[in-house]
Amino acid sequence: MKILVPVKRVVDYNVKVRVKADNSGVDLANVKMALNPFCEIAVEEAVRLKEKGIASEIVVVSVGPAAAQEQLRTALALGADRAVLIESADELGSLAVAKLLKALVDKEQPQLVILGKQAIDSDNNQTGQMLAALSGFAQGTFASRLEIADERATVTREIDGGLQTVSLALPAIVTTDLRLNEPRYASLPNIMKAKKKPLETVTPDALGVSTASTVKILKVEAPAARSAGIKVGSVAELVEKLKNEAKVI
Ligand code: AMP
């Protein structure tokens, strides 16, 4: 079984992001970039399926600038077999990314596509769902458990009210939630080996996909600064302040 894992290059989660002065977006100049944490979980799950003998090949794909090769190499070091960079210097919206991934799905014919539930830069939480719609595959989103048997994927989903288990016919789309697994660290020998694994670059044009966007970002703003908190000396003081200052009780 071939597994396709789309991975995104995003601002490292430890970085405190700054909004550009013209409010056109987040300032990415000299900022540390990393593999999106939910994508790391997706790669880990695919690697575990390969270790169990269920998957035979793991292909990772990223849509982004040439620099996204770094994140693809990280995914190769974590255990993916080969990588595809769909190179685009422009920041693309989810629908354009999903269309590009659909073209790659047609070419690669994976039985399973594992994506992150969301990219932590834009928090869109929609690429997997859009890819499922475009490809006509079944989808199991927010997975906290995944089992493959008898040509089906059983996915336990984290939903508001608890857990929901769905059974999907393959080929299928799964998106990862936080509790699915704990990703491993790449070992130094695997980082060295990853440098020699195949990494192919293609353009959106070569895939026959138009990346023209129907969505325009009008403005990006930082959240309002919060005023400093205070420490109260006792429960009585807390109750007094909630009653008389904050007027919430
Ligand atoms: P989003 O819908 O943007 O929150 O992203 C959800 C998931 O879609 C991510 O965790 C990735 O698996 C995939 N994805 C989103 N954008 C890209 C991209 N530019 N390249 C590859 N995969 C992506």
From TrEMBL:
Q: Which cofactor does it need?
A: AMP
Any Pfam family from its record, for instance, is ETF
Electron transfer flavoprotein alpha/beta-subunit N-terminal domain: from which residue to which, for each copy?
23-211
Question: What's one GO BP annotation on this UniProt entry?
Answer: carboxylic acid catabolic process
Q: Give the UniProt keywords, A-Z.
A: Electron transport, Transport
Q: Which PROSITE patterns match?
A: ETF_BETA
Q: Name one GO molecular function term.
A: electron transfer activity
Family matches, as SUPFAM superfamilies:
Adenine nucleotide alpha hydrolases-like
List the Gene3D superfamilies hit by this protein, alphabetically.
HUPs
The entry's function note states: The electron transfer flavoprotein serves as a specific electron acceptor for other dehydrogenases. It transfers the electrons to the main respiratory chain via ETF-ubiquinone oxidoreductase (ETF dehydrogenase).
On subunit structure and binding partners, the annotation says: Heterodimer of an alpha and a beta subunit.
The family note in this entry says: Belongs to the ETF beta-subunit/FixA family.
**Protein name (Swiss-Prot/TrEMBL):** Electron transfer flavoprotein subunit beta
